[in-house]
Design a protein that fits this description.
six-stranded antiparallel beta sheet; mainly beta; globular; about 60% strand; 11 strands; Jelly Rolls
Length: about 110
């Protein structure tokens, strides 16, 4: 298992294979990931802690522990922690490629492209 820090929080890779990758992701209070999409992978998110605002293809909704979300290949998506504690979710990626360079950022709070 490997862990990576980001300006919005951190993630840990729980398992990876040629067919899928599983991460645990922590989003710090009042932080959000970039508004992004992927060309080669779909994602399934299962929230285990916290309250978040999710934007999926321009539509915003609030989610909390126990909720899940499917993100198809090419869907624009973002998660934002709107609470006072870490948002924690499990992300299961499926597709043909799982590298961090399969991210097209549309908008980013931290100046990343």
């Amino acid at each position: 298992m490997s862990e990576s820090s980001r300006p919005w929080g951190r993630y840990e890779i729980l398992h990876e294979s040629e067919a899928y990758k599983v991460k645990c992701i922590w989003v710090y209070p009042h932080k959000r990931l970039s508004y992004q999409r992927h060309e080669k992978r779909a994602e399934h998110w299962f929230l285990v802690a916290g309250t978040a605002k999710v934007t999926l293809n321009g539509v915003q909704s609030n989610v909390r522990a126990g909720d899940s979300l499917d993100i198809a290949i090419g869907d624009l998506h973002r998660i934002e922690n709107i609470g006072h504690n870490d948002v924690i979710f499990i992300e299961v990626q499926t597709g043909t490629y799982f590298g961090e360079d399969d991210i097209e950022r549309i908008e980013d709070d931290f100046g990343r492209e």
